[in-house]
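Dear all,

This email documents one entry for the complex benchmark we are building for the journal club exercise. For each entry we list the sequence lines for every component of the assembly. Then comes the predicted three-dimensional structure of the complex as a token string, followed by one or two observations. Please use this as the template for your own entries, and keep the labels exactly as they appear.
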Amino acid sequence: MSLDTSPRIADPDALFALLVEAHRGLDEAESRRLDARLVLILANQLGDMAVLRAAIALARDAASRGETG
Amino acid sequence: MGSGEGSAFPGLDAPRLRAFICRMAFTAPRYAAPSPPPGPERRGVVVVGGGLVGLTLALDLAQRGVAVTLLDDDDTVSTGSRAICFAKRTLEIYGRLGLGPRMLAKGVTWRKGRVFHGAHEAYAFDLLPEEGHEYPAFINLQQYYAEAWLVEACAAAGVDLRWRHKVSAVHPQAAGVELAITTQGGDYALHADWLLACDGARSFVRESLNLPFTGQVFRDRFLIADVVIKGDVAFPTERWFWFDPPFHPGQSVLLHKQPDNVWRIDFQLGWDADPEVERQPDRVIPRVQAMLGPDLPFDLEWVSVYTFRCRRLEKFRHGRVIFAGDSAHQVSPFGARGGNGGVQDADNLAWKLAAVLNGTAPESLLDSYDAERIAAADENILHSTRSTDFITPKGKAAQAYRDAVLDLAAQHPFARSLVNSGRLSRPAILAGSPLNGPDAGQGGAVPGSPLPDAPLRRDGQPDWLLRQAKGQEMLLVCAPPGPPPLPGLPTLFLSPEEAPHAAHDHAGLARLRLGLPPGGAALVRPDQHVAARFAWPDPVAIQAARARLWGRA
């Protein structure tokens, strides 16, 4: 399996709202920990180191392009 | 044994610590310092450092018939418990050297561990869920016991033990090393054909040769307290590790039981802690009381504050100077990889050097020590670094992931596997070794693995597979006894049925763990590692594997 970046979420607005809602009422540290738990749970669900590596690289790459662009 | 001490604890200030040693079931021996020789001397093999690794190496060499001189700048064993966790493979090595049963009898056997997060248990593990091994996953034993017994065994094996003979200069030559030795009775020059530097993390030999010792320093401090508890304690004989416990908030704590009712407690202090202040009894006692409760009487036996590093030499062999143990590589204490790694260095080096000295192998065989033990050191450093990064997260993101793992671990098995409170020492699999031969096995012990143990019967009596590998090269054949495939090669038949002149593999575990088909064979190295596996004992193939094993191919 390789990293699939085509649109796969049926209701993207609902996903975004779900993520934001999950953080409601949390301070910065609690939010960070929630995200960390979420990443771990999703990473385990995915269970593929190669795809995870590609996803991490993509996330880092997007951040650096965000800064310069 | 100053020079050979496991200097993972450089905070040690011996005189001050001895002052508040309250009770010791163990009395440290004092060894006599021999007078210096009247003039310059020549010796074949000189070991520098009478700590765990130097003594083990000297004993192994002496039992192989090599004359060994051992120099140490002190006249006693280690102060404090130091390397307490003796792993199964280390015990098997000491079994071969004759000290295993004594260590097992005195040591505290454990195989289970628990990890707590806050006030709750996050995770429990069992290191040896399998039966049919002579030695357990771990015992806890103070390093000073092991050293004292090693000294006795070295003396009995004829090792020339020179206490308070301090190396003060090292000059490598093409065919040996010129040493200057300082003693209270005067100085002398000593030529060593081979110098084995087992003089610890602050190795004088390494510094004399100006060899870079590079790696990573961890910005954290830990307090070790060995406490003698005088009442009944509720802690079972298990390794207990706390992240952020109520009695030491925000930091980690590790608890181990040792013989003589000594408990080892490691408190994480953080980088800002002042080591001078933190090792004072009036600081240590409240920390221990917060953990054990105010009413449980205890004495402090040893206290040390330490930081640690993960680093190694680029090469362990430098011509006629060979490094082993902490002088060659250093790891954090989490995972018990320092002492156990060093003992495996000795196990790996002794037979090779003995073979070179008696002409069985070319000098180039010693290069395989580098190849095999550098790979093992890197594995230990990798695990140790990862454990330390989990225990001491670098930055807020790492902290968040660490805490997230612990949040999930209590309920979810996938997160338990991510909890890293120390990946406990496992023997190195020398998979890429140049000494490995062909592999016709399936599963089980691939070439480069330590020979697995298994229960056997010999002449109707219970016995163990590893006990049959006494330090010589040997062939194991999974078949009823027959003529040996190669004259001169010690051969043991692991017979599925009881038979004379064979070991009875009554449970079939020896063949299973060796990963061999019926009739298959394994060539075993002098250090009890599998060198090659054969579908049948083909003399031509075995002879080729032997040539490779002894560095002649």
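Observations: Residues 1-23 of chain B have pLDDT under 50 and may be disordered. Chain B has two domains: 14-19+32-371, 455-549.
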